Amino acid sequence: MNAPVEASERFGLSAEEYARVLAILGRGPSLAELGIFAAMWSEHCSYKSSRVWLKELPTEAPWVIQGPGENAGVVAIGEGLAAVFKMESHNHPSFIEPYQGAATGVGGILRDVFTMGARPIANLNALRFGDPKEPGTKRIVDGVVRGIGGYGNCVGVPTVGGEINFHPAYNGNPLVNAMTVGIAPADRIFRSAAAGVGNPVVYVGAKTGRDGIQGATMASAEFGADAAEKKPTVQVGDPFTEKLLIEACLALMETEAIVAIQDMGAAGLTSSAVEMAGKGGLGIALDLDAVPVREERMSAYEMLLSESQERMLMVLRPGCEDAARAVFAKWELDFAIIGRLTDTGRIVVRHGGRVEADIPLGPLAAEAPLYRRPVEETPQPEALGEVEDPAGLEAGLARLIGSPDLCSRRWVWDQYDATVGGQTVKRPGAADAAVVRVEGKRLALALTTDCTPRYCAADAEVGGAQAVAEAWRNLTATGARPLALTDNLNFGNPEKPRVMGQFAASIRGMAMAARALDFPVVSGNVSLYNETEGVAILPTPVIGGVGVIEDARQAVGIGLAPGLSIVLVGASTGWLGCSLWLREIAGREAGAPPPVDLEAERRNGDFVRARIAAGEVAACHDVSDGGLLVAVAEMALAGGCGARLAAGPAGVPPHGFWFGEDQGRYVLAVADPARLLAGAEAASVPARLLGVAGGEDLTVQGAVAISVAALREAHERFFPAWLD
Amino acid sequence: MRAGIIVFPGINRERDMAIALESASGRKPRMLWHTETDLSGLDLIVIPGGFSYGDYLRAGAMAAHSPIMGAVKAHAARGGYVLGACNGFQILTEAGLLPGALLRNVSLRFLAMDCHLRVERAGTAFTGHFQAGEVFRAVLAHGEGNYYADEATLDRLEGEGLVAFRYSDAGGRLTEAANRNGSARAIAGILSPNLRVLGLMPHAENLVDPVAGGEDGKKLFEGLAAAFAA
Known about the structure:
The structure holds two protein chains of two kinds. Helix content of chain A is 34%, strand content 24%. Chain A has 24 helices and 28 strands. In chain A, strands 8-10-7-11-9-12-13 form a seven-stranded mixed β-sheet. A seven-stranded mixed β-sheet of chain A has the order 23-25-22-26-24-27-28, sandwiched between helices. In chain A, helix 7 packs parallel to helix 10 and helix 17 (460-477) packs parallel to helix 20 (598-613). The longest helix of chain A is centred in the N-terminal third of the chain and has 21 residues, at 135-155. Chain B is 23% helix and 24% strand. Chain B has five helices and eleven strands; from the N terminus they run E-H-E-E-H-E-H-E-E-E-E-H-E-E-E-H. In chain B, strands 2-1-3-4-11-10-9-6-7 form a nine-stranded mixed β-sheet, with helices on both faces. A two-stranded antiparallel ribbon of chain B has the order 5-8. Chain B is globular. At the A-B interface, helix 8 and helix 10 of A face helix 1 and strand 6 of B.
């Protein structure tokens, strides 16, 4: 049965792509074949618009064990162990059905990590929502938070960090980027390339249903006004089954049974079978009659494209089938041999005695369409010029600290189990990055996600560099040595040159920063078509950073304690362009983002890390959104301790000094400021004594006197008032 | 102390519990798969936290009917010691080893944060290292921790001194804000009449390490280790 030509467009294939399908097959495709081509050539699976640019990112370092191209990246962390991590978006489903969209996003990224042989030890989430004043935003925030908690809490992986921004540009396209980090023995990493002609192809996990069919195609198009009608393309998560799957897979991985393994994510059985066989340079024959199903009379098309969750595909060593089956029987999970590896270089799918698909693998994966789409640079923003302070420092601080982008996220993290596993050293809000120890070791990982989309919108190159630098800085501020990053590149419609220009420029900036900071990219995900009715999101290249701390006891948080001196490291020019102060207090989104001086960034960060390692630093916080005074206020809130600060330097306007967002800066709380300042001078790092911690109030000489209690009241108000 | 930890499908705090027990007693607990029925030689059976069977029916309801629970009931009937934490507490009430039930939190949201517990009943195997009235920190992580029992049962628990812990503030005061899940009479943990079965909603096992949050929960496990060393 051939699929009608006009169906191809409904499947998201262009006329050109459909012509290519005909040429490859030498005939018209069956419905199943059309589904396979459409899924594998979707933006989501093929990265057809982004691949040419992604090659510019640095991916290597001596500690990198596995760079991009596998289910997750892998870096050595010492003591024979490796950190395995990746971030992935579930944006489109989370708009349509926030709870399940977010929940299955967590489930999917967990599978990417334990597929590699790692036990997941932490989850993080980078979230972007629309204007809180929009009536629809509340439902999405509540659903996404419940979904993340519902899944993560049940599987027993602590949710330890992340970020939340609000902006009207996300009204129709919230972003849900989930990151998982796991630990594996460095010499026992599992990969996806199939090997061994004749070896059994095994399906394990949950049964296949009709959920999520064509999800990858849905995620590769803009939304129209009918977005809500796309609910059937959203998958449904079952964290209980995922938990069983984690334990069963990790148990089987202790044996020598597995040759290759891959989770069934976007495009389900199709993409896992095609990618595994394709990477191995082999062929694959599948018998769909053997696939465990939970609905009757499913067609080949439905089984191949179903995105039912909690499923894995494995290639086993011959003779290991029975032992492997016993492991999955113990965990009460399905186990079925559904095919064999072949030497044909083709995927051949049989169902009910008929061949439903027979396609060469090359054109589906490695030789999938590749586009160098037209690029248009965004014009450079105009310089901001001088801005008057309409509010004064104290009122400005009180408003900023209570604004949606800066207020306490307690309402959110109070719904996430951050302690399961017993290894969480720094919980959400306690430090610039979450810190999770490796069970049974002193070794700990620092974990963060970062992006400042308003910078990227004004200048995507600077914004891309800044996102990488801020992740590196947040890891550094805990005392960690940054190792590598995963990225989640969220953009609008790549067929629009301006959007593609933002993408290309972001990559340029990211690559520059990643090189300068020895902070390579080891995994990532691209999410395009984040547009509704022609309105695109802000360019949002989210960086997930991982660093290592040799001894968890050395990790520092951000809380002030009485008697400590407060020192600023890094140079301040009073840069207000693109700042939160400018938006929230002056009511403008204008100017260029703060420049990122990568040499200074590195010098300042290396200095701070060395001082932390030497035990000289009691608390450390980077200066980012909201600027210096917000940073000190956050330290005061975390420590429950006030601070007395001297006036800022002459030559920089007070609101520029206290609220400007110059990069490469840290606030340190130290017992011996003279020693720190001398060290900074010797290292050619700018440093300035700001004041002393103590008392009940936060004061700036001659300008601010506000109690920490009043700050806390302002800081904690927004989320509960809005959502409870 | 010879302890065994039961692992039902979906349990996820078994490792945390093992670490806490081993750090206090110096002895690795035995991990018990839910299909096992031989509990001989064990002083203490622990049912840890998690989502047994996904908690898709009522929390703990499926696990309460699994093969190993028959053995746990026999162990308790022989005067054996049992600790149920979080999902374990839910399972013990579902199995009828402790009275009452754990309902959804009043906020209808999952609660994950530190709380304070006031020790109501000292001098048991579980509370031997605490003083009555002492306050310590523990970790909440549950969606269904709202303890419920009828008034007569609550009166009996109080009258017989079987309320082990209540939610309080850091100063030991019983406030509405401190009782986050809305439990009847702020009850966080209860004992069986022979004081050998404890159900406790918060996680003491997640605060046994100065580097990972603090050591407030350690006294519970050290008390247990001492009780069985004697």
